[in-house]
Sequence to fold (263 residues):
Amino acid sequence: MALSTGLRLVRTSFSHEKSISWFPGHMMAGLREMRDQMRTVDLVVETRDARIPLSSINKQFEQIIKGKRRVVVYNKADLAPSAIQTAVRQEMDKRGQHVLFTDTSINQSVRQILTVARDMAKSDPIRYPQLVIMVIGMPNVGKSSLINALRRTGLNRGKAANTGAKPGVTRSLSSKIRVLESPPVYLVDTPGVMIPFIPDPIAAIKVALTGGIKDNIADENVLADYLLFRLNRFAGLDYCSILGIERPTDDITDFLQQLGTRI
Fold:
């Protein structure tokens, strides 16, 4: 099916049957470590990507964190349309999940998490002489960046966790990282853990496009084609002026040829 834009025919659906599997050994080891250390954890911060609010959910975490208090943090909110936040909150409320949206470059945004931790610690100082938070999530949702932002906001100190634009930077659980002095609050960083097999090929494409799967694992032509489809479907035709190409198109070959003349 297609819609006429006056320039080209724009697809209204995208078909792709092959999903993507990427579950290296360090992820399985990370899951085991999470299970082993969960008994020492008071609060779980499950980090997801605000750009793909449903596709960045890893259901494997449900059994691991069962019985623990959890805050769901949709990170990279600055890269997603703000209009989606209400819909996401409503959906997660139905699932009984407390949701926050964060932009790690803004202290006030990150401080929401510290407020939850501080209130929890102060509610029962005997039970929580020091509050331990475990930060979990799929690859490249910004867990380490979030930890560094929490440390910057809570203690006015520099980076404690390594970060990178590619997935798999954090490969094992970190030691405790202090983010508040009083009450004492510590964080534990964890490796990003992918779903062993994503049954929905489109969800897998979304995860890959947002950096959750290594580029050499995914079919880059399919990723580019899906991104072009989305830009056209939602009238994101600014890519012509941004990339310096002559005209919008719904044909990935035509798009790449136009782009090739600019390189």
Notes: The CA atoms of residues 45 and 71 lie 5 Å apart.
